[in-house]
User: Fold this.
Amino acid sequence: MMNDIVYIDQGQLKTNSVLLADLFGCHHCDVLRRLNSLVSTGYFNERDFVLIKYTDIKGQQGAMYELTDRAFLIATSFIGGVNLKEGQLALVDAFLEKRALLNAQHQAKQITRSIH
Assistant:
């Protein structure tokens, strides 16, 4: 299991389609196809599903989606995969853990500000 299936980027909790493919036991191209289909409906905020470029371990350029916690909650039922249930549980737990960390960091900053 991956350590950082959820990460903090500019104060927001995120994951991405490469991590989801690995976690759910799918090919990344299948996850991209499913997410493209979901995004194309137009029902979602474009900030929740951001298509970005990345370099894979072979050094090849590719596209992946970066997803917010809202997007992940919407998308997981559409991704599928051999590890669907385990992946959903691990991802929810990871988001909750990172959210607690983010909240603790925010509280520590507030306390530091009030002392000074």
Summary: The chain is about 55% helix and 20% strand. The chain has a mean pLDDT of 88. Residues 84-115 form the longest helix (32 residues). Residues 7-115 form one domain.
